[in-house]
Amino acid sequence: MTSERTGDYGLFTERFTQNPYPAYEKLRKEDPVHAVRFPDGQQGWMVTRYSDAEEVLKDPRFIKDMSKIYGGSMDMLSVFTQNMLFADPPDHKRLRGLAQKAFTPKMISGMRGRIQEITDELLEAMEGKERVDLIDDYAFPLPIIVICEILGVPSDDRDKFRLWSNSLIEGTSGELGASVYQHMNEFVQYLGQWFAKVREQPGDDLISSLIQAEEEGDRLSERELYGLVTLLIIAGHETTVNLIGNTVLSLLETPEQRKLLEAQPELINQAIEESLRYNGPVEFSTSRWASENFEFQGRALKKGDLVVVSLNSANHDPEKFADPELFDIQREKSPHLAFGKGIHMCLGAPLARLEGEVAITSLLKRFPQMKLAVESGELEWRPGMIVRGVKELPLLLK
């Protein structure tokens, strides 16, 4: 692997976390397949151009199951990776098929009424307040309540899931401290107790069906059950939290686009797609490894090399998108990569889109006078290699 030049681009610094797009522009021009040391200490390649990103996401030579190269792992982290996101065919098809039943188009469209109910309840609770944190009061609770209802998790436990989820996400910044491992242990213990209850009294929720599948034999192992539930809980709400937060922020920072959407609410779907492209909720793809030695865009990849795609950089590539730095809700249909591409494309994308659509439309209608309570530059962005979103989004409602 060539020498790292991470410092030349300021990658993974606080400044980069606040606004990575200038660094991405430079990388796309100068070093689009960039040798880098990631925050967790691993060396690998960062892919930043759209065409290259699309190829990595679809090329079967880039595999997801690192145990095929480096052998199995039985540490605490491995509990969370026994799922379709870290699997290759044929295991991937089997695991995705088990979860797919909860995310069919018919199931998702049938949830609109319930999502609207939850949204209205959250907005009602915000009514009368002069200042709120949109993340705490709205963007977080909506998707966590929805995914908890799909899975059968008591909604009273949603704050625990937020703590555990944040630990796992922030652990990707390379800081696997004692508190991260403590939260992982708590999460695993919780799941074990929960699974035991479901085995005794199964319901009509997704977890009950997954446990029944596990008990049928070879369809789902115990570790796969833990891994799949972890993925659904975390991915099932993290993407939407940041989709809502980032969309509201972009609309507040571009008043003309906000006015356009308020005047033409039928543009909401285009607004969601543009938000996914412009400042997507998932910063990087999950890890892939080269399954063999081969050349990729002039780079000599060795078997076992780590390769990560910057989804947000690809979505700002001027070779694919005209005026990519403009937030334009009237942009033509966007082939963005915010939800990935190929067999690992996000299973919950239709649910995230629906939640975002309902949340943004209802918020703008209920609080047309809302504005940022602080300057944009004062907002703190979450650390870690996976999600892109602010920790808090303080708003004045009146």
Summed up, what is this model?
With 398 residues, this protein is an alpha+beta fold. The chain has 18 helices and 10 strands.
What does this structure look like?
50% of the residues lie in helices and 8% in strands. By secondary structure, it is an alpha+beta fold. The strands form three sheets. Strands 1-2-8-5-3 form a five-stranded mixed beta sheet, covered by helices on one side. It has a three-stranded antiparallel beta sheet with strand order 4-10-9. Helix 14 runs parallel beside helix 18.
Write the layout of secondary structure elements.
Blueprint: H1 6-9, H2 14-18, H3 21-30, E1 33-37, E2 43-47, H4 50-58, E3 62-63, H5 67-70, H6 91-100, H7 105-109, H8 112-126, E4 131-133, H9 134-139, H10 141-151, H11 158-170, H12 178-200, H13 206-215, H14 222-253, H15 255-263, H16 268-278, E5 288-290, E6 294-296, E7 299-301, E8 306-309, H17 311-314, H18 349-366, E9 371-372, E10 394-396
Parallel strand pairs: 2-8
Antiparallel strand pairs: 1-2, 3-5, 4-10, 5-8, 6-7, 9-10
Helix pairs in contact: 8-10, 8-18, 10-14, 11-12, 14-16, 14-18, 16-18
What is the count of β-strands?
10
The averaged pLDDT comes out at: 89
Alpha carbon gap, first and last residue: 55 Å
Which stretches are low in confidence, meaning pLDDT under 50 for 5 or more residues running?
2-6
The proportion of residues in beta strands is 5-15%
Morphology call: globular
Strand order of the largest sheet: 1-2-8-5-3
| H and E string | HHHEEHEHHHHEHHHHHHHHEEEEHHEE
What is the radius of gyration computed over CA atoms, rounded to a whole number of angstroms? 21 Å
Q: What percent of the residues sit in helical stretches (DSSP H or I)? A: 40-55%
Number of helices: 18
Structural class: alpha+beta
Main beta sheet: 5 strands, mixed
